[in-house]
């Protein structure tokens, strides 16, 4: 492959690539609100067909999957590219510097909802395929594409889709571009994800709100019930006290631990980027906690009055929502059962509701195919990529490693400060173009894999 010709082609077609990306960004596709999903799937299908990809929309029990194929030879190496076309709700609108579905470029960055997560990275994958075809002339491998419309609501139906279409989805490797790059701006190769369990706790007091003086010390306060329950679950150092919570965790191998020690860490810079200048931990602790340990996070609480001024009541209800990031081999269903048992012991009148889950997943860093992809990324960026055994967040990676039994690699194409899920989500134009280039390099390198 002529790498200079490839780079020249990408620069020559830069505006066309941006124009097509902007068309996709203008199409709303908010999965949690079922807003524009069918329209976006149809738009994406048309774009893929324009690239010569045999494409179809496949219905699921929820939102449709856009599936495509470029089959060279059934015996050739087959790469399955995964992404998602759905996006998060844009609210609050008044926090955006420009309308979320009217993409703009400012200071070298594209601003729009979904540009980093995941439409920009998805299109970089597609344009990488086009760039390879137009500069080399023929693909050396087969490529299959799975773009789902429910990732932002937990990929509810992806596992069932994969189970139903196992034969169609047979491949040798799954390649995903999602999430942010490393905060040092170095290219990043991720070999796994943390899983997640989302749950809700509801506590009840009296049948209605009560005067906090007339019934204080008389009527129970459900907010305190939940606060006290949380204290039985987690100590001040963050250690989860639920029996058996840590039992199934698979530790990193010696090689994976070695990879963690090679990751750069700038405490001051990272603290500023995440909006927490008081960050005080060292690099090894940071990476271990982010990738190798579960979390126990409260993401929302609701009870009583929180408006302006005061309202002296004893609330009648309290609700707390939590997400728990899990590591290999913790099972969300097992953890949920352990939490239910704990609540029965310490607060049996509190109702616990399962909201959703995702299994953790990890691909062995020692696999030869992993080393091939690392080599391709190195050639694309002309620098050694950072290798991380797992990302801190969650993706439905387990459907590939667990259901299909395939190795799976994630190479993010977005900048670290992409603000995904937040107002002013963005994607650096150079990162977008580098992603196109990287996809082409991965295709070329995998061409010698069978």
TrEMBL record:
Q: Which PANTHER family does UniProt cross-reference here?
A: BETA-ALA-HIS DIPEPTIDASE, DI- AND TRIPEPTIDASE DUG2-RELATED
Would you say which domain of life the source belongs to? Bacteria
Q: Does the keyword Protease apply?
A: yes
What organism is the protein native to? Answer: Terribacillus saccharophilus
Which GO MF terms are attached to this record? metal ion binding; peptidase activity
Q: What is the lineage of its organism?
A: Bacteria, Bacillati, Bacillota, Bacilli, Bacillales
Q: Which InterPro entries match?
A: Cyt/Met_Dipeptidase (IPR051458), Peptidase_M20 (IPR002933), Peptidase_M20_dimer (IPR011650)
Q: Any idea where the Peptidase M20 dimerisation domain is?
A: 193-349
Q: Does the keyword Cytoplasm apply?
A: no
Annotated SUPFAM superfamilies: Zn-dependent exopeptidases
What this protein is called in its record is Deacylase
Tell me a GO biological process for this protein.
proteolysis
Keywords in UniProt for this one?
Hydrolase, Metal-binding, Protease
């Amino acid at each position: 492959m002529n790498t200079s010709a490839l780079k020249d082609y990408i620069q020559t077609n830069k505006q066309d690539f941006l124009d097509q990306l902007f068309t996709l960004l203008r199409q709303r596709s908010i999965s949690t609100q079922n807003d524009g999903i069918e329209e976006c799937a149809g738009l994406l299908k048309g774009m893929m067909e324009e690239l010569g990809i045999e494409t179809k929309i496949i219905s699921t029990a929820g939102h449709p999957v856009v599936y495509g194929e470029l089959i060279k030879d059934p015996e050739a190496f087959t790469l399955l590219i995964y992404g998602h076309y759905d996006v998060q709700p844009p609210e609050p609108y008044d926090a955006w510097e420009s309308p979320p579905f009217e993409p703009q470029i400012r200071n070298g960055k594209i601003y729009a909802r979904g540009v980093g997560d995941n439409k920009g990275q998805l299109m970089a994958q597609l344009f990488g395929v086009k760039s390879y075809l137009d500069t080399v002339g023929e693909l050396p491998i087969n490529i299959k594409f799975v773009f789902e419309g429910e990732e932002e609501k937990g990929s509810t139906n992806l596992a069932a889709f994969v189970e139903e279409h196992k034969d169609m989805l047979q491949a040798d490797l799954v390649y995903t571009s999602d999430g942010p790059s490393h905060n040092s701006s170095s290219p990043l190769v991720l070999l796994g994800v943390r899983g997640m369990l989302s749950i809700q706790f509801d506590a009840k007091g009296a049948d209605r709100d009560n005067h906090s003086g007339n019934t204080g010390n008389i009527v129970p306060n459900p907010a305190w019930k939940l606060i006290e329950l949380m204290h039985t679950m987690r100590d001040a150092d963050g250690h989860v006290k639920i029996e058996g919570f840590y039992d199934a965790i698979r530790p990193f191998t010696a090689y994976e631990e070695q990879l963690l020690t090679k990751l750069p860490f700038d405490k001051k810079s990272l603290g500023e980027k995440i909006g927490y200048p008081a960050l005080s931990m060292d690099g090894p602790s940071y990476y271990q906690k982010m990738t190798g340990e579960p979390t126990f996070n409260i993401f929302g609480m609701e009870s009583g009055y929180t408006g302006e001024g005061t309202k002296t009541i004893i609330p009648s209800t309290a609700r707390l929502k939590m997400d728990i990031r899990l590591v290999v081999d913790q099972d969300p269903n097992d953890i949920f059962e352990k939490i239910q048992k704990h609540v029965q012991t310490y607060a049996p009148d509190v109702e616990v509701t399962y909201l959703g889950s995702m299994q953790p997943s990890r691909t062995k860093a020692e696999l030869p195919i992993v080393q091939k992809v690392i080599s391709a990324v190195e050639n694309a960026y002309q620098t050694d990529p950072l290798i991380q055994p797992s990302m801190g967040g969650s993706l439905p990676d387990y459907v590939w490693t667990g259901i299909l039994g395939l190795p799976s690699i994630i190479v993010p194409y977005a900048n670290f400060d992409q603000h995904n899920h937040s107002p002013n989500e963005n994607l650096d134009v150079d990162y977008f173009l580098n992603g196109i280039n990287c996809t082409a390099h991965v295709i070329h390198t995998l061409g010698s894999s069978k």
